[in-house]
Amino acid sequence: SRDNEAAIAASVCKTISRCSPLLSAVDAERLSGVIVEDLSKVINRLGPNAMSAAIEALSRLAAHPDAGTMPEAKLLALATTFYSFLHRACDTDIAKLKASNRGMVHRALSALGSICRFHEFSEDVSENVDLSAESSSVLDPSDIELDWTTIVPAAFSMLALYLKKDHAPTRCQALKGLNGIFVAQPRLMLAVE
Q1: Are residues 75 and 147 in contact, defined by beta-carbon separation less than 8 angstroms?
Q2: DSSP state, 140?
Q3: HSE of 184 in the Cβ direction (CA atoms, 13 Å)?
Q4: Distance (Å, rounded) from C-alpha 133 to C-alpha 58?
Q5: Is 44 exposed, middle or buried (0-12, 13-18, 19+ CB in 10 A)?
Q6: Buried b (16+ CB within 10 A) or exposed e, 5-30
Q7: For residues 75-107, b (16+ Cβ closer than 10 Å) or e, as one string?
Q8: Terminal-residue alpha carbon distance, the chain
């Protein structure tokens, strides 16, 4: 069944996450060339636990010094895709969307938070987030180039916008996404207070 498939995929992804730092240079390079697309499919197709585990696995693989640029590039491409989707949907009434479209919004919110949580940033990017009221607008993805220095501020603004929606399940997913950012960037949580 689909639930069993998701549980198995989540277990495999968690195993990859735990083993990635221990891989030799040859194994890391070989694995990153083979498994990136499979992890991407898990992220896009399976349930929230499997999706989060796959994002963590992809992040851990991207952090390996010998994995090459493919895992990190794929992770950023996924973040950009989810951000762009949320930007297109941000002016819609979530409660009036079809259940499948609402599910895609919730998936994108959760995935964006997980990417910000599990990616190993080279610096504290919470300093790039401006919390003033006039800067809380969401950036159009066509106006900025999302990279690892801009993704946290952009994701924070997007998740904060969805947190204000008048739809409780959407607010819960936005809060879960913000939780991912706060776990990775605890200074940001303190600044929000």
Answers
A1: no
A2: P
A3: 28
A4: 34
A5: middle
A6: ebeebbebbbebbeebeebeeeebbe
A7: bbebbbbbbebbbebeeeebeebeeeebebbbb
A8: 44
Q: Token pair for residue 16?
A: 């990859």
Residues sharing a CB contact under 8 Å with residue 162, sequence separation 6 or more, in sequence order: 86, 90, 105, 109, 170, 171, 173, 174, 177
Distance of CA 81 to the CA centre of its chain: 10
Per-residue confidence of the chain (193 residues) as pLDDT tens digits? 778 999 999 999 999 999 998 988 888 888 887 899 999 999 999 999 999 999 999 999 999 988 888 899 999 999 999 999 999 888 888 888 898 889 999 999 999 999 999 998 776 555 555 554 444 455 655 567 788 888 888 888 899 899 999 889 999 999 999 999 888 888 777 766 5
Please give the backbone phi and psi of residue 153, each rounded to the nearest 5 degrees, phi first: -60, -40
Gap between the Cα atoms of 157 and 174, Å rounded: 11
Calculate the alpha carbon distances from 127 to 10, 146, 158, 163, 190 in Å: 33, 16, 17, 22, 12
Q: Record the pTM.
A: 0.87
> Who contacts 153 (Cβ-Cβ below 8 Å, separation ≥6)?
125, 128, 129, 130
Six-digit token string for 52: 């989060």
